[in-house]
Amino acid sequence: MSRSISGLRAWIFQRITAIYLAVFVPVALGYLLFYPVTSYQPWVELLSSPWVNTSLLLFVFAILLHGWIGIRDVVIDYVQPFSARIGLLVLVGLGLVACGAWAARILFNVKGVV
Amino acid sequence: MARKTKRPVFLNLLQIKLPAAALLSVAHRATGIVMFLLIPFCIYLLEMSVSDEMGFHQVLAMIDSLPFQLLLFLMLWILLHHLLAGIRYLLIDMDLGVDRVVARRSAWLVIFSGFASASLLGVLL
User: Fold this and answer.
1) Which residue of B has its CA nearest to A110?
2) Would you call B32 and A106 a contact, using CB atoms and an 8 Å cutoff?
3) Distance (Å, rounded) from C-alpha B87 to C-alpha B89?
4) What does the pLDDT read at residue A3?
5) pTM greater than 0.90 (yes/no)
6) How large is the average pLDDT for residues A67-82?
């Protein structure tokens, strides 16, 4: 795989994304716990408001990068045959990019009533 | 050769007793893999919930069903366990709690508080 995402740099990205996730996830869950959304319109309004929408996009990016590095570590540790390793990594990578595109499309298209 | 065959090869996984920190490390990986596999499902739920009024209520109804509630509790536990263990690793990266006794104690702390906080939140929800 590319040199830019191995070793120390991967380690650092793993931690930076971890910190974002460790802040975002409790805040998001806490918010939904205290202000439960029970109907469609407020839900769409919430997701389309600039702060929520942008932080969710960042969340998607962070979780995909974090997941990529984590799964990559696991695959490198346990899958020894070269072709199986590369095949699996390509599959995981494509899957994650596809998930990112899918989630981004949803978030870009959410529009509340103006 | 003879010496090699006499080496104690002991790989009965059920009889190897791992220290708490090792157990936590394995669990951190396992929970990470589970959450990774759940990503598409979560996006699917998000898409359904914003599609229209009916989709939103379908998602709510699904979340409210009993099997899903149990699954949700499991997911909450997995998430909190991964989160707390992750915070422990970040602290260890900063040279906090590297000492074996402390590391072992904090590993147990993470294991118990992960389950405890998941249970507490599960009851609250």
Assistant:
1) B50
2) no
3) 5
4) 58
5) no
6) 92
CB contact under 8 A, A67 and B36: yes
Size of interface A-B (CB pairs under 8 A): 59
Q: Name the packing angle between helices B66-93 and B53-64 (round to 10°).
A: 80
C-alpha–C-alpha distance, residues A60 and A13, integer Å: 14
| Minimum-distance CB partner of B56 among A25, A40, A96 | A40
Cα dihedral B45, B48, B49, B53, rounded to 10, equals -160
Count of H-run helices and E-run strands, chain B: 5, 0
- SS3 assignment for A8-36: HHHHHHHHHHHHHHHHHHHHHHHHHHHCC
pLDDT tens for B22-78 read 888 889 999 999 999 999 999 999 999 999 999 999 999 998 888 888 888 899 899
Whole-number pLDDT of residue B23 = 84
Minimum-distance CB partner of B33 among A26, A47, A74: A74
Q: Do B43 and A99 touch (CB under 8 A)?
A: yes
Place of tokens 């998602």: B59
* pLDDT at residue A103 is higher than 90: yes
ipTM of the complex: 0.87
Report pLDDT for B1.
47
In chain B, which residues have their Cβ closer than 8 Å to the Cβ of A96?
39
What is the structure's pLDDT at B18? 76
Residue whose token pair is 């795989």: A1
